[in-house]
Design brief:
The chain is of the alpha/beta class. It has two domains: 1-69, Tetrahydrodipicolinate-N-succinyltransferase, Chain A, domain 1, CATH 1.10.166; 87-270, Hexapeptide repeat proteins (UDP N-Acetylglucosamine Acyltransferase, domain 1, 3 Solenoid), CATH 2.160.10. It has helices at residues 2-13, 23-37, 56-68, 91-94, 260-269; strands spanning 44-46, 52-54, 72-76, 79-83, 97-98, 103-104, 109-110, 115-116, 120-121, 126-127, 132-133, 138-139, 144-145, 150-151, 156-157, 170-171, 176-177, 182-183, 188-189, 194-195, 200-201, 206-209, 215-218, 220-221, 225-236, 239-251. A ten-stranded mixed sheet has the order 5-8-11-14-17-20-25-26-22-23, covered by helices on one side. The protein has a six-stranded parallel sheet with strand order 6-9-12-15-18-21, with no helix packed on it. Helix 1 packs across helix 3 (56-68). The radius of gyration is 20 Å and the shape is globular. The N and C termini lie far apart (40 Å). 39% of the residues are buried.
Length: 274
């Protein structure tokens, strides 16, 4: 990808003077989006040392697409859309199951075995093998969703496209994200984690060990945890109010498979569900 990365970086540096009709510009940008679409490139990934590496040039390519692409009419049966970015196609050849009502933009990637119930996946997102994107879930631009993940009904995974250096939302392999959870603003859910229904996790939300009261960090749930929506009291001029927090109520053994009945009992014991 080094040559393509260099060409995108050059276009990005020259963007105030770019000619959106220049066929070489269009071809280079489309080549980069095709690489995202097929999984040959991705916006971000977890590195061997556990940190997240962001490939800024991939985000730059998406932003260049928005600035150079033309509006067009997309017709799908009785429905009509007006957009700059077409929808994906050829799902069967990609080994992806797509239920009517689901859609994904060109430039997002779904690995073989992904199941998309009526849902939406935006450009730059990367969805790993055998992951379920359940009904009315949304996967925002550039979000990185691991393999064997279940995004339950109504989950909102926020998009982080700008600035190009910003870390997108990361949901690592083997996670279960409960119904109506919101994960946004560059938050990260560690491998094997269960996030109970309705939890809110952004980059600034505190994650607290419910047994010790220790703040484990902000915007990042540790791997192999069971975590639920909580609040933390804060004093304001008008009184004391509870602000959102995420509570880690149990640690799972590394590699422990999610036993739905056992998990549901743990969550019920704490007044939560998946």
């Amino acid at each position: 990808m080094s040559d393509l990365e260099s060409r995108i970086s050059e276009l990005w540096a020259a963007r105030p003077d770019l000619d959106a009709d220049d066929p070489d510009v269009v071809a280079t940008v489309h080549e980069a989006i095709d690489a995202l679409d097929t999984g040959q490139a991705r916006v971000a990934e977890v590195l061997d040392d556990g940190t997240v590496g962001v490939n800024q040039w991939c985000k730059q390519a998406i932003l260049l697409l928005f600035s150079t692409a033309k509006m067009s009419t997309i017709e799908l049966g009785p429905f009509e859309f007006a957009d700059k970015i077409p929808l994906k196609a050829d799902y069967a050849a990609r080994g992806v199951r797509v239920v009517p009502g689901a859609s994904a933009r060109w430039g997002s990637y779904q690995a073989p075995g992904v199941i998309m119930m009526p849902s939406y996946t935006n450009i730059g997102a990367h969805v790993g093998a055998n992951t379920m994107v359940d009904t009315w879930a949304t996967v925002g631009s550039c979000a990185q969703i691991g393999a064997n993940v279940h995004l339950s009904g109504g989950v909102g995974i926020g998009g982080v496209l700008e600035p190009p250096v910003a870390q997108p939302v990361i949901v690592e392999d083997d996670c279960l994200i409960g119904s109506r959870c919101i994960v946004a603003d560059g938050a990260r859910v560690g491998q094997g984690t269960v996030l109970g229904a309705g939890a809110i996790l952004t980059g600034s939300i505190p994650v607290i060990d419910a047994e010790t009261g220790e703040e484990l960090g902000r915007g990042e749930v540790p791997p192999w945890s069971v975590a639920v929506l909580g609040t933390r009291a804060r004093q304001f001029g008008g009184g004391e109010y509870g602000l959102p927090a995420v509570l880690v109520i149990k640690r799972l053994s590394e590699g422990e498979r999610h036993d739905k009945s056992a998990l549901n009992q743990i969550l019920r014991d704490h007044g939560a569900t998946t």
